[in-house]
Design a protein that fits this description.
The protein is an all-alpha fold. The chain contains twelve helices and no strands. The chain is 66% helix and 0% strand.
C-alpha cells in the first residue's frame, strides 16, 4: 500500500509562526568612537598630570599673594618698621627685618609684583622676537634664512648676562630697561625652534593648497603655519618666564635692578653682605624665587606632555 507523505503547507504571511521568524529591520549604524577635539584632549591630559596640577596651584598662590597682598597689607616696603636685624616670628615683624629695619614680609609681598611683571613681560618680548625672526627664516629660506641665522648666532655667542648689564648701565637701571635687556638677549632659542617648525610645515600639502589659491605670505605664516606650530612654542614661552625671573634676580643681585622698585632680587642683593647675621632677609626671597620658577617648570613639563602627541601614550 502506497503511503503518500503529506508535506506541511508553507506558513501564511499572516500566521503567528511567520511573524516570529521574520528578520528584524537592520539597525542604524552608529560611530564606534567619538572624535575628541585636540584642545580638549590636551586639556584633559594636562589635568591628569599630578605635577602640572601642583605647579598650577603653586603659581596661583604666588600670583594671589602678589596681587591681593598689597590690598590686605597696605604698607610701604621701604619703610623702617622695627630695629634692624630683628629675627623672624617676632611681634614687630613676622618674618623679621633686614639690615635697615625694613619688614621682610612687606618687601616679599610687594617685591613679587615687580619680579613677576618683569618675568612675564620679558618672556613675552623674547617670544615675540624669536617667533617673528624664526618664522621668516623658516618660511622663506635662502638668503633671508642665512642672514637671520647669522644674527641669531651673533646673539648666541654674546655673554647674555654681560650684554644685559651693558644695556642696563647705559640706559639707567629701571624696570623698563631691565625688561628690555632680558627680552633682547633671550630670544635665540625660540627663534631656532620656530625656524625648525616652519621648515617642517612649509612643504606640506595644506600649505601648498593655500599658495595655489593665491593666499598671501602673511596669511600663510600667521594663520596657517603658526597655529600648527604653536604647541612647542607654548612650552618654550612658559619656560622662558622662569628663565626671565632668574635673570631679573641675577641683575638685581648685582646691583643693576631698579632701586625704586622692591623686588625679590633686590632684597637678596641688598642683604648679601649680611647673610650670616640676617639670613632670613636672603632666605625668604630666595625661597619665593625657587617656588615660582619650580611652579613654572612643572607647568611647562605638563604642557609638553599634553601638547606633544608622541608623549600622550606614555
Amino acid at each position: 500500500m502506497n503511503k503518500t507523505a503529506t508535506m506541511p503547507s508553507p506558513a501564511s504571511p499572516l500566521s503567528p509562526a511567520s511573524a516570529t521568524t521574520a528578520p528584524a529591520a537592520p539597525a542604524v549604524a552608529r560611530p564606534a568612537f567619538r572624535v575628541e577635539h585636540p584642545g580638549t584632549e590636551a586639556a584633559r591630559m594636562f589635568l591628569r598630570n599630578p605635577s602640572a596640577i601642583v605647579g598650577m596651584v603653586m603659581l596661583l598662590l604666588v600670583l594671589l599673594v602678589a596681587i591681593a597682598g598689597p590690598w590686605v597689607f597696605p604698607a610701604d616696603p621701604f619703610e623702617i618698621k622695627a630695629a634692624p636685624l630683628t629675627p623672624p616670628f617676632s611681634e614687630e615683624a613676622w618674618l623679621g627685618t633686614d639690615y635697615l629695619g625694613r619688614d621682610v614680609l612687606t618687601a616679599l609681598i610687594y617685591g613679587g609684583r615687580a619680579t613677576l611683571l618683569v618675568g612675564a613681560v620679558a618672556a613675552l618680548l623674547s617670544v615675540v622676537i624669536g617667533i617673528t625672526l624664526g618664522a621668516f627664516a623658516g618660511y622663506y629660506g635662502g638668503k633671508i634664512d642665512a642672514a637671520l641665522m647669522k644674527l641669531t648666532e651673533f646673539f648666541q655667542v654674546l655673554p647674555a648676562l654681560l650684554f644685559a648689564m651693558v644695556v642696563v648701565t647705559l640706559f639707567s637701571p629701571t624696570l623698563v630697561t631691565v625688561t628690555l635687556a632680558i627680552g633682547i638677549v633671550s630670544w635665540t632659542g625660540t627663534a631656532r625652534l620656530t625656524r625648525a617648525e616652519f621648515m617642517k610645515f612649509r612643504g606640506l600639502e595644506f600649505v601648498r593648497a593655500e599658495r595655489a589659491i593665491g593666499a598671501r605670505d602673511a596669511r600663510i605664516i600667521w594663520k596657517v603655519i603658526l597655529p600648527n606650530a604653536l604647541p612647542p612654542l607654548v612650552v618654550s614661552a612658559t619656560l622662558a618666564i622662569g628663565a626671565a625671573i632668574l635673570f631679573e634676580a641675577g641683575l638685581s643681585f648685582l646691583g643693576l635692578g631698579d632701586p625704586n622698585q622692591m623686588s625679590w632680587g633686590l632684597m637678596i642683593g641688598s642683604s648679601r653682605q649680611y647673610v650670616l647675621s640676617c639670613w632670613w632677609a636672603v632666605a625668604f626671597p630666595g625661597a619665593a624665587i625657587f617656588v615660582t620658577v619650580l611652579a613654572v617648570s612643572l607647568i611647562g613639563d605638563g604642557l609638553n606632555d599634553a601638547l606633544n602627541p608622541k608623549l600622550r601614550e606614555r
